[in-house]
């Protein structure tokens, strides 16, 4: 028999096997979610064809589906895949508040090579024990000491932005991202990488490369099994080598320092003892952390450091950039912010280094940041995998199902946030938390953001410093942002504003 006939018969058989498997799965799933509406899938692409435009179309497509089909919709991210997208308050409450449905969806596996079993990606008892053990590192009495890190790096940011004064248009998101990297490196590892001045450092370039590879993988139509034949696979391998070597080296140095002298509980005393030029970092606290009486292993330490690096820089930097854009384009809000800053700092307006109490006095700026995070939640969606079947309003949702929660969509719900597209910081003055799961920029429940307070302090400190030094205005010509939902919400064409020296 000619070889071509063999090939044709094999294709024929394979087709029928696939069809058989497909019908079996559809049949066995038919008792589930039968009342749910959603966009019609096209075999074998599911609903992915509409997403081909990439990260700039994702949110628009999801918003369109939600408008047409309701608050909980069934989508098909592939031929044999089901995912539910939810902006239903009660359903989200059920998930957020649950201590059972805490496992992340399959997309988070693309982060595993970098983040390993860090807090963001781990599950089950590993996650529970680590979360419990690491939580004290984010106590406000410890976070207070990071204010100096925000302030000293903030001074470098101001220096860099001074070079932009008087220009019609400045793209701030890239500069703010480098600043946020400096902050998180110093806070997490106690290392000053000076990304603002040396963005070409191998470590910084590799961190950036890993972030973008994760995004590529999440949105890639290729099956994960084919990943090793892609160029990204080799790029990731190279970047991982650099990042892991760098972090492991820092960890080894700290362990050596610690073994020379026992870490003193008093953080300032420790600096005296070690004669350290650096401030205490999260890593120093992780080195003291024990689980079941054992110190964290070197691998645990690396995973947690990498997780803080990933979760703790683009999230804050994108929020700060959007916040500066909102102030530049809403002069009345900017006036209120600066008035508050003058009330707090008086004649020291430009030079003051805010204390913890002074940051907490910035009530109006706090509203501005909250409203920015409502319109532009840094993490626009996150996914969970159901740990067991759920029955909700007449539908059965199967164990293992991916549920995508979309704060970007929910936080624009007009029934909860009237005039949702408008920037109105005052709405949070009397936001009475009637819908506690409607505003979730930091997620909610047991798997909420452990770095929330750190991030709020960093954002208050940074925006306060920028606004005390510069008057912000819209860029010329006017810049229309292009929202893109990567792992982080960004503007694909940058965030442009213009800066003038502040005179008062
Ligand atoms: C504006 C800034 C930030 C925002 C909006 C934000 C938001 C979030 C969200 C939505 C999650 C849940 C993600 C998911 O379920 O997929 C999360 C988790 C997490 N965040 Fe943040 N984050 C911010 C800053 C930070 C910072 C500065 C750190 C560290 C210093 C941090 C560390 C983490 C960690 C470790 C987790 C995983 C927690 C767990 O699962 O136990 N985040 N963050």
UniProtKB/TrEMBL annotation:
Organism lineage: Eukaryota, Metazoa, Ecdysozoa, Arthropoda, Hexapoda
Localization per Swiss-Prot or TrEMBL: Endoplasmic reticulum membrane; Microsome membrane
The protein's required cofactor(s) are namely:
heme
Q: Which UniProt keywords apply?
A: Endoplasmic reticulum, Heme, Iron, Membrane, Metal-binding, Microsome, Monooxygenase, Oxidoreductase, Transmembrane, Transmembrane helix
Give GO MF terms, alphabetically. Answer: heme binding; iron ion binding; monooxygenase activity; oxidoreductase activity, acting on paired donors, with incorporation or reduction of molecular oxygen
Taxonomically, the superkingdom here is Eukaryota
Q: Which residues bind heme?
A: 449
* Identification of the protein by name: Cytochrome P450
Check the record and name the PROSITE patterns matching this protein: CYTOCHROME_P450
An example of a Gene Ontology cellular component annotation for this protein is: endoplasmic reticulum membrane
Identify the Pfam families for this entry: p450
Q: What is the first-listed, main subcellular location in coarse terms? A: endoplasmic reticulum
**InterPro entries, A to Z:** Cyt_P450 (IPR001128), Cyt_P450_CS (IPR017972), Cyt_P450_E_grp-I (IPR002401), Cyt_P450_sf (IPR036396), Cytochrome_P450_Monoox (IPR050196)
Name the family the entry cites. Answer: Belongs to the cytochrome P450 family.
Topology class, membrane: Peripheral membrane protein
Give the transmembrane ranges: 6-25
């Amino acid at each position: 028999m000619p070889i071509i006939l063999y090939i044709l018969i094999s294709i024929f058989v394979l087709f029928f096997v696939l069809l058989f498997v497909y019908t079996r799965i559809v049949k066995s799933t038919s008792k589930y979610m039968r009342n749910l509406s959603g966009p019609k899938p096209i075999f074998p692409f599911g609903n992915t064809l509409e997403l081909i435009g990439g990260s700039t179309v994702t949110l628009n497509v999801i918003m369109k589906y939600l408008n047409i089909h309701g608050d909980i919709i069934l989508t098909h991210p592939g031929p044999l895949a089901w995912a539910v997208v939810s902006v239903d308050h009660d359903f989200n409450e059920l998930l957020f508040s649950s201590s059972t449905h805490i496992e992340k969806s399959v997309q988070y596996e693309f982060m595993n090579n970098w983040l390993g079993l860090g807090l963001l990606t781990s599950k089950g008892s590993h996650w529970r024990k680590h979360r419990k053990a690491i939580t004290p590192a984010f106590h406000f009495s410890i976070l207070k000491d990071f204010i100096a890190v925000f302030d000293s790096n903030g001074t470098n940011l101001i220096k860099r932005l001074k070079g932009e004064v008087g220009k019609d248009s400045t793209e701030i998101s890239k500069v703010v991202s480098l600043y946020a990297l400096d902050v998180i490196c110093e806070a997490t590892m106690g290392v000053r990488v000076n990304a603002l001045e040396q963005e070409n450092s191998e470590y910084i370039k590799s961190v950036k490369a890993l972030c973008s590879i994760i995004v590529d993988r999440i949105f890639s139509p290729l099956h994960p099994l084919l990943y090793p034949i892609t160029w990204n696979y080799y790029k990731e391998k190279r970047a991982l080598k650099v990042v892991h070597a760098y972090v492991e080296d820092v960890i080894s140095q700290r362990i050596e320092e610690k073994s020379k002298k026992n870490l003193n509980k008093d953080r300032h005393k420790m600096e005296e003892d070690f004669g350290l030029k650096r401030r205490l970092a999260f890593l120093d606290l992780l080195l003291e952390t024990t689980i079941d009486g054992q110190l964290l292993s070197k691998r645990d330490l690396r995973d947690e450091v990498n997780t803080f690096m990933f979760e703790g820089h683009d999230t804050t930097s994108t929020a700060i950039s959007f916040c500066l854009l909102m102030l530049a384009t809403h002069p009345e809000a900017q006036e209120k912010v600066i008035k508050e800053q003058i009330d707090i700092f008086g004649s020291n307006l430009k030079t003051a280094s805010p204390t913890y109490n002074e940051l907490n006095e910035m009530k109006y700026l706090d509203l501005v940041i909250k409203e920015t995070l409502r319109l532009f939640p840094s993490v626009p969606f996150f996914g969970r995998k159901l740990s067991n079947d759920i029955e909700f309003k007449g539908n059965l949702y199967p164990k293992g199902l991916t549920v995508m929660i979309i704060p970007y969509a929910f936080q624009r719900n007009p029934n909860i946030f009237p005039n949702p597209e408008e920037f109105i910081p005052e709405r949070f003055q009397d936001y009475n938390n009637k819908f506690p799961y409607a505003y979730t920029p930091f997620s909610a429940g047991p798997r909420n953001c452990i770095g929330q307070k750190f991030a709020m302090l960093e954002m208050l400190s940074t925006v306060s410093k920028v606004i005390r030094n510069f008057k912000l205005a819209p860029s010329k010509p006017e810049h229309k942002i292009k929202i893109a939902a990567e792992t982080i919400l960004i503007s694909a064409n940058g965030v442009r504003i213009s800066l003038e020296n502040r005179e008062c």
